[in-house]
Design brief:
With about 375 residues, the protein is an all-alpha fold. Helices cover about 70% and strands about 0% of the residues.
């Protein structure tokens, strides 16, 4: 074989010879995400693996190839990240992340102030607003439902529902939009919060939350699991594992399981989920009109959810005789704990002595449950188990 022929064969095997312009665009997008994650600190734990998976699949598309049988009847394995992605489609990884979140979450502020459930529920209005808007924009019911969950600012739930509803082609754009808006919480929410509240309302100081007993914290995950899963059994993979992780934590007798769920297992799952979701954003799947619609719908859902939480916070303030700061309602969109920190930050800007963080954590963790319930509701509506 001549040197020329050898060099020609090598060139034909390179990515430079096989990629299209769209792949280069996606590689550039991946580099932007990496910059935002590393330089700006925007959700680096998730954005780095997502961006790297995006880069890999657009350099070497076969890394996501399905297994196949050739003309000679020989079976060929799929690409590495194809098997990671199956764990997303089967809803295994999102559910395991919920267990890790539960093991890290303190439901004490929610138990101490049960009215936080109202604010967490109100912030889910963005999901239903986005659902009907998506229908209007031409998406079918299942696609609209999968897209609308972005409004809960909860990436695992978005991936979970997209997999359950069979919307795997949209999973990449949905997950990227969900995690992007989670990262942009400190930028998106404050203008909406300030627009809907007066300075006087933002300065409202809330009473210190009552102490929550260990028994209450142990009973909470058990009761929530029974009540929610009896009403909506389809929420069991999310709500059930969320509460199981929390029971590990609050029981105080399985420290090893708590540490594993909240550390080693959690971070392994994040690597697998983030990389595989990023690898689902090949150029042919991502660069189309539907992706742009999903990004717009996600922003609408997130904005309406934030507004819904704040507005119900204002109503609750009236009901409680001026003792509730409406800013804590914005934390109901989930995005734990960043949304609660934003409530604290905006409140402190109005009055540096104001401390809203623990009060905002109530709606914040209620929003996690609320988003899971919304996902379960859509599954029930479409007859998915």
């Amino acid at each position: 074989m001549s040197i020329t022929s050898t060099l020609s064969n090598l060139w034909q095997q390179t990515a430079f010879n096989n990629l299209e312009w769209g792949n280069y665009v996606m590689i550039l997008v991946a580099c932007v995400f990496l910059y935002l994650a590393i330089k700006k600190g925007f959700e680096p734990l998730l954005l780095i693996p997502i961006a790297f998976g995006m880069m890999l699949v657009n350099i070497y598309p076969d890394i996501m190839a399905d297994p196949y049988v050739d003309a000679q009847g020989i079976e060929h394995a799929g690409g590495l990240l194809h098997y990671f992605f199956l764990l997303d489609e089967w809803s295994i990884l999102p559910s395991l992340i919920f267990m890790g979140v539960g093991a890290m979450t303190d439901f004490g502020p929610l138990i101490a102030n049960p009215s936080s459930f109202i604010l967490g529920a109100a912030a889910q209005l963005g999901i239903y607003a986005a659902y009907f808007l998506a229908i209007f924009m031409g998406f079918n019911g299942k696609s609209a439902a999968a897209i609308s969950i972005i409004g809960g600012a909860d990436g695992p739930t978005s991936i979970f529902l997209a997999g359950k509803l069979g919307q795997t082609d949209l999973m990449g754009p949905i997950a990227v939009a969900a995690y992007s808006y989670m990262a942009l919480v400190p930028i998106i929410q404050p203008p909406i919060m300030k627009l809907l509240t007066t300075e006087k309302e933002r300065k409202i100081k809330m009473e210190q939350l009552r102490p929550v007993s260990r028994l209450e914290k142990i009973l909470f995950p058990i009761i929530i699991t029974i009540v929610v899963c009896m009403i909506l059994p389809t929420t069991a993979p999310l709500v059930g594992l969320l509460m199981l992780g929390n029971l590990f934590k609050e029981s105080g007798v399985v420290k090893q399981l708590t540490d594993t769920a909240s550390n080693a297992l959690m971070y392994i799952v994040v690597i697998l989920l983030g990389t595989s979701v990023g690898a689902s954003t090949s150029a042919e799947r991502f660069l189309n009109a539907d992706t742009l619609k999903i990004v717009v719908l996600g922003l609408v859902a997130f904005a309406v959810g934030t507004a819904g939480g704040v507005i119900f916070g204002k109503i609750l303030n009236v009901v409680t005789g001026g003792r509730t700061n409406p800013l804590i309602g914005s934390a109901g969109v989930s995005a734990v704990p960043m949304a609660a920190r934003v409530s604290q930050k905006v409140g402190a800007e109005a009055d540096p002595t104001n401390f809203l963080l623990m009060h905002a954590m109530g709606p914040n963790v209620a929003g996690v449950i609320g988003t899971a319930v919304a996902a379960g509701t859509f599954m029930a509506v479409f007859g998915v188990v």
